[in-house]
Amino acid sequence: MLILGISATTKTGSIALYDEEKGLLGEITVDIEKTHSATLLDKIDKLLDWTSKKVSDIDEVAVSKGPGSFTGVRIAIATVMGLFFAKKIPVYPVNELDALAYQVNVPGEKVVSIIDSRKEKIYYSISVTGPNGLELLEDYQVIKLDELLEKLYTDNCIYYFSGDGAFNYREKIIAKLGENAKFPLYSNIKIKASTLILIRKNYEVTDIYSLKPYYLEKSQAEKEIKNGT
User: Fold this and answer.
1) Helix or strand run (H / E) with residue 41
2) How far apart (Å, rounded) are the C-alpha atoms in residues 96 and 124?
3) In this predicted model, what pLDDT tens digit does every residue of 167-192 receive, in sequence order?
4) N or C, which end of the chain has less CB nearby within 10 Å?
5) d(Cα 218, Cα 221) in Å, to the nearest integer?
6) pTM of the model
7) What is the arithmetic mean of pLDDT over 23-35?
8) pLDDT tens-place string over residues 68-81
9) How far, in Å, CA of 76 to CA of 56, rounded?
10) Cα–Cα distance between 155 and 167 in angstroms, integer?
């Protein structure tokens, strides 16, 4: 069985191709300044070409449903729908904050997953990996970075940090929390599409028609409609 993984939730875009018999065939992970709409399909084409596979060979998809960039999440989901609308293959929508926590892989320790929403507004969750898998200690939320750091400082616990927000605000996190702030290897701090593939079956499978993004907050357009502007 061949599985494609896709994440375009942050500036770190990642795609991976995994064969259940052979393992990971290939993965492309890059940081970009422009939107993923200009590069995502091209990356998928290159990965398929390099691995001598075709779109028609893919049996399942694991895609990040968010939270994160409204545009990036929509691009990833639209790409999946466009490529597989006719084939109607199973799709696993994975929460990216969960995937970031899994990448840290420090059983029993508290992990803070942070996705940067710019200007120190963040999406985050706090979780721990136990004998039964990932357990959420604090549900997915949107908050200002200073508010989160003040809360963690008051708790006075050791926390492992993951996500592009942890990378972007590392110095500020360390300045506030000191030795209580731990960071994984650089290769594990930003999202990898292969992680989405590996944990996909922790989530409910859906079909192309039911695939929806998970934003955590309303988009700017939705806010303007609500406010009548």
Assistant:
1) helix 40-50
2) 10
3) 999 999 999 999 999 998 877 888 99
4) C
5) 8
6) 0.90
7) 85
8) 988 889 999 999 99
9) 18
10) 22
HSE (side-chain half, CA atoms, 13 Å) at 136:
10
With bands split at pLDDT 50, 70 and 90, how would you rate the model's confidence at 11?
Answer: confident
pLDDT at 36: 62
Residue 187 phi, psi dihedral angles, 5° rounding: -65, -20
Give CA–CA dist 91/188, Å, rounded: 24
Query: How far is the C-alpha of 27 from the C-alpha of 213, rounded, in Å?
Result: 23
Which pLDDT does position 86 carry in this prediction?
Answer: 87
Cα dihedral sign, 100-101-102-103? positive
| Residue located via tokens 């779109």 | 55
Phi, psi dihedrals of residue 89, rounded to the nearest 5°: -80, 160
Using a 10 angstrom Cβ sphere, with 0-12 exposed, 13-18 middle and 19 or more buried, the burial of residue 127 is buried
Within 10 A of 54 (CB to CB), how many other CB atoms are there?
10
Number of other residues whose CB lies within 10 A of the CB of residue 184:
17
Q: How many CA atoms lie within 13 A of 50 on its CB side?
A: 14
pLDDT above 60: residue 106: yes
**Contact, 123 vs 142, CB < 8 A?**
yes
66 token code pair: 């968010």
Helices and strands: H and E segment counts in the chain: 9, 10
The pLDDT of residue 52 = 97
Residue 196 three-state SS = helix
